[in-house]
Amino acid sequence: MKKRVYLVDDEMLALQELSVLLKPYEELEIIGMSDRVDQAIKDCNELKPDLIFLDINMPGMDGFAFLENLEEVNQVIFVTAYDQFAIKAFEINALDYLLKPLNPKRLAEAISRFYLKFQSEKEDLESQRLTPEKKIFIKDGERCHFVPVSKIFLLESEGNYVRVFFDKETALLHKSLTYLEQKLPTDLFFRANRQYMFNLDFVDRIEPYFNSTLLIVLKSGHKIDLSQRQSVKFRDLTGV
């Protein structure tokens, strides 16, 4: 599967040059680029790329402030004409720091580093992933629940918490939906959009929705609309 890449730079020429340099890397897919920071924030929060190539010195907002405005950040490679920000870049765990004009050899090293880190994190996540038989401990106020993963039918993001629906009860868990997405079995749970994730075993029916998207109706009666990107992914997964 190709890794999804987004490019951010206030100079369109720099974006075009970088996209040309990335063309030989068939394992990477450029899903978007922007020379406007506000648009790039919107795109990245929606598309959630695996890797962002990011300039630092941009009008209105620098690269570090840009990252603070993202809902989640995967991997970042800074591409800049200034070397004085390198220490700060690595303090926030940037994958690499490339200076303009770009050296193709250094770019290749950075992409290689990305793949090594991606594979390492993937193996770590898979080794920690829960199975349907496992139970999640949820302390909700004074009540405690040990909930089998297989009995959870819906998860709803509520700020820094996730509301977990199981049997005929709900409870708040102090985790993010993204964290749980990385922990729960991928063959059982599907991320619908930014707010919801659901258990495939509890799907009652699937209905067509707006703009070629899908509406999922659970056995509980809950209705969940899939984003356009997730509708495509759901169709590929289920063949509907």
UniProtKB/TrEMBL annotation:
InterPro entries: CheY-like_superfamily, LytR-like, LytTR_DNA-bd_dom, Sig_transdc_resp-reg_receiver
Annotated keywords: Phosphoprotein
Record's keyword annotation contains Phosphoprotein: yes
Alphabetized Gene3D superfamilies for the sequence: 2.20.25.10, 2.40.50.40, 3.40.50.2300
Record-listed 4-aspartylphosphate modification sites: D55
Keyword check for 4Fe-4S: no
Single GO MF annotation: phosphorelay response regulator activity
PROSITE patterns, alphabetized: HTH_LYTTR, RESPONSE_REGULATORY
Domain HTH LytTR-type per the UniProt entry, residue ranges: 136-240
Domain Response regulatory, first and last residues per copy: 4-115
This protein's name: Transcriptional regulator
Originating organism: Algoriphagus sanaruensis
